Structure formats: structure tokens, C-alpha cells
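We emphasize that the prediction below concerns an isolated chain of 273 residues; any contacts that depend on oligomerization or on bound cofactors are therefore not represented. The input was used exactly as deposited, without trimming of termini.
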Amino acid sequence: MMDDYDAQPDRKPPPEPELSPAQLEADELDLNAGLSGLAGIVADARSIDEILGQVAQFAVQAIPGADGAGVTLIHPRGTDSAGEELGIQAWSVTAEFIQVIDTLQYQKLNEGPCITCIQSRRPVVSGSLGSDRRWPRFGGSVARMGVHSVLALPLTVGERVVGSINSYAHARDAFTEHAVLLGSQFAGPAAVSVYNTQLLASTQLRTTQLQQALRSRAVIDQAIGIIRSRSGGTAQDAFERLTRISQREHIKLADVAEQMVDEAVRRARARQS
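Result of the prediction step, given as a C-alpha cell string:
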């Protein structure tokens, strides 16, 4: 028995079905196929959105009973124990009805299974969303869409929650303990894939910013040299002149410097022609 998850309060699900050896083997094969798909993701060749989309697709394959799934990535600050507003960074879904559900959850109501599982760091299950008192506004709205079951799985790396996988089904009580177990086995490697992609994207952004800063510094130094050659002043005097132009024209300092360098190049070419 698996009890390390948050079941719907005040609702007794139907008895766990007896699964045949063939069904257990089929579910295991689907899980392994999903895990193999995760292992095949080449993070440096795809964006975060593309990675989340693939993880969501593999989740539907790996989790029995899922009609669709969404994967959510949160800001590094996450949520605190008091349940402050969730810092959603990105999410991706496998079906349009889940896009509607997640928009409702994250942007309109700020309540739902994803938010709960990220705050509790535990899987969350509901077999009748319309009567689930944990999310009275969310559950009723989703049930009216004909969606009655959810399995939300936190994506954790060490002590850090980086997001969640949310599987939905139209049927009631679609996610059994067996589904929770397989989903949890999938969520561990999925969390690593998502986290590594997040780190890679952050590193690439910092590298780009550093390269831009170095290029800007080089152009500013060239502009300072041009001003000094004309005025005979110091480097500090030349830098202050660039700063005054930037403030007066409301143009970035690096852009002022680039314009000055480009103008000097044009004049030099005109003299040579």
C-alpha cells in the first residue's frame, strides 16, 4: 500500500482493482517508455517550453488513467509555508482542456492541485473534483468541464521543488494507488530533466549578458579613445562626456559609444575614397 500522498478528504474511493500480470507488465512498459523518452531529451538543443511539452507527453504515457497532462515550472523562490502566491515561470500541456484548467488555476483562482502539491511536496489525488472541499472554486469549475479526476505530482530535486506534473482524467476515481506509484517513479527523473534545463537556460542567459557587457565595454573604450584623440583630455573626461550625451539624449551609454565609433569609421573611409 502507498500512503505517502494526499487523498481527497471525506471520499472513499472504490476498491483498488486487481490488475492482471499482463496489465502490470503493460503499465511497466509504458513507464519505461516514458523514462526512456526523458533520457533522450537533449536539453541544449531545445527551449524550456519544448522540454516541458515533451515531459508532459511522456507523463501521459507513463501514468495509467491520464487523459492529458500539464507540466508547470515555478520561479526559484517557489512558495513559502504560508502559501504565498505561486511564482509560475512556464507551463506546457498536452490538450486544450488542460490549458483552460491551468489558466483557471494559476491566473484566476490561485488554487488547485498543482499549487497544493508544490506547497505540501506530496502527490495530491482527487477522484471527484466537484465535491473536493480543498479547492471549492477550482473543483466546481473543472467538474463542469467534465473533468473529475486529477493526480498532481511535485517535481523535487533534493529539498527544492522546481514544479509539478498534473494529470487529469474525465472519469471519476481514475487515479489509483498504482497510478500514484508509477507517477512518482516518473516524477523523479522528470524533475532532474526540468531542473537541468532550467539551469542550462539560466547559464546561457548569463553568458549572453556577459558577452554583451564585454562588447559594450570594448565599444565604450573605443569611443573614449576617439574623444581623447580629438580633445587631448583624460580618459575620465572622455567618459564623462559620453555620460552627458547619454543623459541628454536619453540613449544608453553603449549605444552613444557605438554611434560615435560608427561615425568615426565612416569619416575615415570617406577620407580614403
